[in-house]
Amino acid sequence: MKSVTGNGGYQEQEGCCYGPIPIKALLWIDLLNAVGGVASGQIVKFTGTDGYTSTVSYDQITSGGFTMYDASGNPATPTAKPTLAIVYFANGAALDSSTGSLEVGLLSSESLVLTVVYGQVIK
User: Which residue among 8, 12, 13, 102 is least packed, with the fewest CB closer than 10 Å?
Assistant: First the structure.
């Protein structure tokens, strides 16, 4: 699978934002297509090693319909579609055991837009 680069960041539950930071990732749509794809009406459920779960819809995967934020934590409307990604490299280094070696996140070409990262990937 092809590696992609872009900008990412995250907003904690308390509302504090981090980023944007440069990230490297694989695209979820590429992985899903490699195992049979995802169809309209289907969802994908992510479960982190910490037990946290999140689901995304077909429309979110294919159209990038996610809530995004600016550096102040305010909702922002991106001009470019964000892409659901498997993040493995952030801010110049591989992800480490403090966050997990992989995270589900959103990749954007915009440097001012931050995205919610779903956390450690898949048990």
Answer: 13
Angle at 15 between CA 100 and CA 6, to 5 degrees: 55
Report yes or no: 27 and 83 within 8 Å, Cβ to Cβ. yes
The pLDDT tens digits of the residues spanning 61-85 come to 888 887 777 767 777 787 778 888 8
DSSP state of 29: H
Beta bridge partners of residue 27, listed in sequence order: 85
Contact status, residue 82 vs residue 64, Cβ threshold 8 Å: yes
Residue 10 confidence class, pLDDT cut points 50, 70, 90: low
Q: Is the dihedral of CA 48, 37, 69, 115 positive or negative?
A: positive
Q: Compute CA distances 28 → 3, 14, 16, 36, 43, whole Å.
A: 11, 27, 26, 12, 13
Q: Return phi, psi of residue 119, to 5°.
A: 105, -170
- Rounded CA separation 98/81 (Å): 29
